[in-house]
Amino acid sequence: TLEPPIGSGPYVVTRAEPGVVLELTRDPDYWGRDLPVRRGLYNADVLRYEYYRDQNGLFEAFKKGLVDILAEGDPARWSQQYDFPAVTEGRVVKEAFVTALPKGMTGFVLNARRDIFRDPRVREAMVRLYDFEWANKNLFFGLYERQKSYFDGSELASIGRPADARETALLAPFPGAVRADFLAGTWAPPIGDGSGRDRAVLKSALDLLTAAGWKLQGSKLVEARTGAPFAFELLVATREHERLAVGYQRTLAALGIEARIRTVDAAQFEMRRKTFDFDMTLWSWGASASPGNEQLNRWTSRAAATEGSLNLPGVANPAVDAVIEALLAARSREDLVAAARSLDRLLLSGFHVVPLFHAPAQWVARWTRIEHPSTMPKWGWTLPAWWVANGGKQ
């Protein structure tokens, strides 16, 4: 229905054109307007959300002043195209808001249900072979940061932190489940020279693959026992992901690994994702400051055997199951942090995902007729706290 719903919030729907515009008008009789938790919020008389067919059209509308605020997600545009007159004249400003929230995990998923990725040494080699420095320089103008943790950028991350007494107690029933460098918090993805063919990185990956039963035969990597080539399919659904896959494919080829990129439409990708019908794919798991029940669907042994779950790598580890139970049972912040860091160490130590990258901040551009508080909350910018300067109404 297009009938405006009856609600109890600070705004009411006054205009709705599907695919064109949604307009909300502030309710002068809003019951919560004077509550302390609403102080300073919902300042605009009218909020108008306009819909565009693509990001280029939206950006051009912003440049003309038809849109007041633009959250930017394209590093190329952020670094190269915000040089139009309104920016140079100071009528539009660019801002980067650093948050304290976990960045989650974005990476190439290694499906351990497939024989080729069953050995953790092979999976570690695949992590080593991703040249973040090359991708960041050539694709993202050096603006991204390497993903190092499933809770990057927060107190929940284990990187750089040795396991404390709480974590040690959680992991004690599972000796060997976490490698020593992950327990110490000293592990980090390798840093290459940005060429895509860093010989030291290639050598370290080849050593792992050799220990796992693979060898170089001419220009191809083959299984020493059978002579079968190291070949797999990398499933993607967007042009952006295809571009990332091509860069990774280039580095893998330097070690004789054949990665066949398969680009499919959204419906086919979703079907294959739900049935775990892939060798490798690209996926993102979001994260919050208080992880909870969603972890059951992501990393437990039960989820690994349940089609449609988000346990895409097929993690089936009793230690992971136990730590997630401890996470859900936590009754203090200290216990929750310990369980989250333990989970982070277990997942990283299993090399289930090739970590990619994240933006270091929220990139937002605004016309200066829109103003905001000088102090931002830890989760970043929030539209209800912003206002129109000079007594404007929208």
Could you give the topology of this structure?
Elements: E1 11-17, E2 21-26, E3 46-50, H1 55-63, E4 69-72, H2 75-80, H3 85-88, E5 92-97, E6 105-110, H4 120-128, H5 132-139, E7 145-146, H6 165-171, H7 180-183, H8 199-211, E8 214-217, E9 220-223, E10 231-236, H9 239-253, E11 258-263, H10 266-274, E12 280-285, H11 296-299, H12 301-304, H13 318-329, H14 333-350, E13 353-355, E14 357-358, E15 362-367, E16 370-371, E17 387-388
Parallel strand pairs: 10-11, 10-12
Antiparallel strand pairs: 1-2, 2-3, 4-15, 5-15, 6-12, 6-13, 7-14, 8-9, 16-17
Helix pairs in contact: 4-8, 6-14, 13-14
How would you explain this protein's 3D organization?
The chain is an alpha+beta fold and 394 residues long. The chain has helices spanning 55-63, 75-80, 85-88, 120-128, 132-139, 165-171, 180-183, 199-211, 239-253, 266-274, 296-299, 301-304, 318-329, 333-350, and strands at residues 11-17, 21-26, 46-50, 69-72, 92-97, 105-110, 145-146, 214-217, 220-223, 231-236, 258-263, 280-285, 353-355, 357-358, 362-367, 370-371, 387-388. Strands 11-10-12-6-13 form a 5-stranded mixed beta sheet. A 3-stranded antiparallel beta sheet has the order 1-2-3, with no helix packed on it. α4 (120-128) packs antiparallel against α8, α6 packs across α14 (333-350) and α13 (318-329) packs antiparallel against α14. The radius of gyration is 24 Å and the shape is globular.
